[in-house]
């Protein structure tokens, strides 16, 4: 076995105690946060994130393991997915389209991203997402080509319109014949479809495309990282929807808005979007149809005991109304326009801004949304995928119900706390069931803290199972443990869930992995609590941090 360079013990110890001190003081460490906020709470509630979650969404195994089943030999033709609307809607349609291509045994051509006129931009797929990475990540899930074969490269695809189809739309029945006939078609996926009827390989292709294969281009990611770094930490990313068109679309009425807002809403209402009045308006509101105002949002955040000095990144489009309702209470609110240089911001397209909000929101300490739109669905699922559990949707319905019952002040706060706490505990809304499975497992909220390094092959023989190859789990996510965890060999086969917390030079990837114990630490003295296989280490950290702090829990 190769030996990792081991620092003198006192260096390790002093570094460790220093890092531990940082960990103890860092409010973003979940296992410790609960204790801290229990002490500091003043209204009788600790903050919502310190509540222990019972249910957690996890990516399904059939997705993660699906690369193992071979792709069909016979190709039925080529499909281009044509996507319209905002960035997150295009992305969702594209994911669907990837699943359809796999279902139809077709080869995927890079999609067309047709940006709605009001975005004023030409951003195609390749301007936003890293094409090489996409193709690489989809390997084994579906065939993707960058260039069409010469015999069809000069043709435009034949458009098969399924976008308006609803319900039990069957692609094999209605689209496959066109594909076989024309050999190159373009589709915009139907609005709703019975994904539950897809074979697993098609669903897996969709999941892989949506959650594992789309990465921003280098230059966009660079910009996004800059933005992320400029935001004070730790921070909550808040997706607020209270733009004139949103409010007009909701057909809700609000009292107490400024004349400017009222005028903007009126202007956005067409003839078919007149607001409900009287009893209808009350019923509509009670069903949770009305967007939360920034003021109401601030009230709910307070009910959830989110301190008013919390750093909040506003992940929202331009044109939010009544934002003072939030910023007068939560004073540390930052926006893109304030953080990016003016010139940069001016020249930025709508899709670029949406991509930045998305990136920041899947990397924030916590995420809350007042709506459950395309962005929220993407972000919450990505966060579930990465093991970031602090995700919550504020309940318009709960707010409307309680206020219609006449609750106010402290009683309203208590009721809101309870409703949201229940949602959080049950993991409601944190992911969609297509690619994720809800499982009843204590999450990492109360894990232990230790250190991890990696060790290199040869990994056999191990102290647990000698030379047997079968002892290693798929993906080589295995570890060797030090004396404290070894338990005289009883540790063999135990499984741990772990994630990287910190380390020198920001090594952590924000992902949680499950590992299996196969060996006792092969190095003396053992350099860390847990030694990860190189694959396991690479899954949660960059190698530049050879030694990292981890949180782990036996599962
Ligand atoms: C796709 O290929 C598989 C074999 O790999 C076959 O079983 C299936 O029927 C094919 N589906 C279509 C729509 O051609
Ligand atoms: C669209 O953006 C370009 C610069 O990117 C600008 O020159 C042009 O005037 C804009 N058009 C509209 C309609 O806003
Ligand atoms: C915000 O809501 C509070 C009640 O929660 C109310 O007293 C206040 O007037 C509202 N402010 C605005 C600007 O609407």
Automatic annotation (TrEMBL):
<dbReference type="InterPro" id="IPR036908">
    <property type="entry name" value="RlpA-like_sf"/>
</dbReference>
<keyword id="KW-0294">Fucose metabolism</keyword>
<feature type="domain" description="Expansin-like EG45">
    <location>
        <begin position="450"/>
        <end position="555"/>
    </location>
</feature>
<dbReference type="Pfam" id="PF03330">
    <property type="entry name" value="DPBB_1"/>
</dbReference>
<comment type="similarity">
    <text>Belongs to the glycosyltransferase GT106 family.</text>
</comment>
<keyword id="KW-0808">Transferase</keyword>
<keyword id="KW-0732">Signal</keyword>
<protein>
    <recommendedName>
        <fullName>O-fucosyltransferase family protein</fullName>
    </recommendedName>
</protein>
<feature type="signal peptide">
    <location>
        <begin position="1"/>
        <end position="21"/>
    </location>
</feature>
<keyword id="KW-0119">Carbohydrate metabolism</keyword>
<dbReference type="GO" id="GO:0016020">
    <property type="term" value="C:membrane"/>
</dbReference>
<dbReference type="GO" id="GO:0005737">
    <property type="term" value="C:cytoplasm"/>
</dbReference>
<keyword id="KW-0812">Transmembrane</keyword>
<dbReference type="GO" id="GO:0016757">
    <property type="term" value="F:glycosyltransferase activity"/>
</dbReference>
<dbReference type="InterPro" id="IPR007112">
    <property type="entry name" value="Expansin/allergen_DPBB_dom"/>
</dbReference>
<keyword id="KW-0328">Glycosyltransferase</keyword>
<keyword id="KW-0472">Membrane</keyword>
<dbReference type="InterPro" id="IPR009009">
    <property type="entry name" value="RlpA-like_DPBB"/>
</dbReference>
<dbReference type="GO" id="GO:0006004">
    <property type="term" value="P:fucose metabolic process"/>
</dbReference>
<keyword id="KW-0735">Signal-anchor</keyword>
<comment type="pathway">
    <text>Glycan metabolism.</text>
</comment>
<dbReference type="InterPro" id="IPR024709">
    <property type="entry name" value="FucosylTrfase_pln"/>
</dbReference>
<dbReference type="InterPro" id="IPR019378">
    <property type="entry name" value="GDP-Fuc_O-FucTrfase"/>
</dbReference>
<keyword id="KW-1133">Transmembrane helix</keyword>
<dbReference type="Pfam" id="PF10250">
    <property type="entry name" value="O-FucT"/>
</dbReference>
<keyword id="KW-0325">Glycoprotein</keyword>
């Amino acid at each position: 076995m190769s030996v990792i360079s081991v620092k003198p013990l006192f260096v390790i110890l002093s570094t460790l105690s220093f890092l531990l001190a940082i960990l103890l003081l860092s409010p973003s460490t979940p296992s410790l946060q609960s204790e801290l906020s229990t002490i500091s709470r003043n209204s009788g509630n600790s903050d919502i994130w310190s509540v222990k979650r019972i249910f957690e969404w996890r990516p399904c195994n059939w997705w993660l393991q699906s690369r193992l089943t071979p792709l069909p030999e016979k190709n039925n033709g080529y499909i281009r997915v044509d996507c319209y609307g905002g960035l997150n809607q295009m992305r969702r349609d594209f994911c669907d389209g990837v699943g359809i291509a796999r279902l139809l045994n077709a080869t995927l051509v890079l999609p067309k991203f047709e940006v709605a006129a009001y975005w004023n931009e030409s951003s195609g797929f390749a301007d936003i997402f890293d094409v090489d990475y996409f193709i690489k990540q989809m390997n084994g899930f579906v065939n993707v080509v960058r260039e069409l074969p010469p015999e069809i490269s000069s043709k435009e695809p034949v458009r098969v319109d399924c976008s308006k189809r609803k319900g039990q739309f069957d692609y094999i029945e209605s689209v496959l014949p066109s594909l076989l006939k024309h050999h190159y078609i373009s589709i915009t996926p139907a609005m709703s479809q019975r994904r539950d009827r897809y074979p697993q390989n098609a669903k897996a292709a969709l999941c892989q495309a949506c959650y594992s294969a789309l990465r921003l281009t280098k230059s966009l990611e660079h910009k996004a990282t800059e933005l992320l770094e400029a935001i004070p930490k730790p921070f909550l990313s808040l997706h607020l929807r209270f733009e004139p068109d949103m409010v007009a679309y909701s057909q809700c009425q609000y009292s107490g808005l400024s004349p400017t807002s009222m005028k903007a809403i009126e202007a956005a209402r067409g003839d078919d979007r007149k607001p409900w009045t009287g009893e209808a308006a009350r019923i509509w509101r009670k069903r949770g149809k009305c967007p939360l105002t920034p003021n109401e949002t601030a009230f709910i955040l307070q009910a959830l005991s989110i301190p008013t000095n919390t750093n909040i990144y506003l992940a929202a489009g331009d044109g939010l109304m009544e934002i003072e309702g939030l910023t007068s209470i939560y004073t540390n609110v930052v926006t893109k326009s304030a953080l990016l240089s003016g010139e940069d911001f001016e020249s930025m397209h709508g899709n670029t801004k949406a991509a930045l909000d998305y990136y920041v929101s899947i990397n924030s300490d916590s995420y809350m949304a007042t709506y459950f739109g395309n962005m929220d669905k993407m972000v919450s699922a990505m966060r579930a995928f990465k093991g970031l559990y602090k995700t919550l949707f504020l309940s318009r319905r709960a707010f409307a119900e309680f206020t219609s019952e006449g609750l106010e002040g402290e009683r309203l706060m208590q009721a809101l706390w309870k409703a949201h706490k229940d949602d959080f505990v049950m993991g409601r809304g944190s992911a969609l069931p297509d690619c994720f499975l809800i499982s009843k497992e204590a999450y990492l909220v109360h894990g232990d803290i230790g250190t991890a390094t990696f060790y290199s092959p040869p990994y056999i023989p191990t102290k647990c199972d000698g030379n047997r190859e079968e002892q290693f789990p798929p993906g080589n996510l295995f570890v060797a443990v030090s004396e404290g965890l070894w338990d005289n060999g009883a540790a063999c086969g135990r499984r741990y869930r772990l994630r990287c917390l910190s380390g020198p030079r920001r090594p952590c990837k924000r992902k949680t992995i499950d590992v299996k114990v196969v060996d006792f630490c092969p190095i003396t003295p053992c350099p860390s609590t847990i030694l990860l296989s190189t694959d396991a280490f690479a899954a949660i950290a960059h190698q530049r941090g050879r030694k990292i702090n981890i949180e782990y829990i036996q599962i």
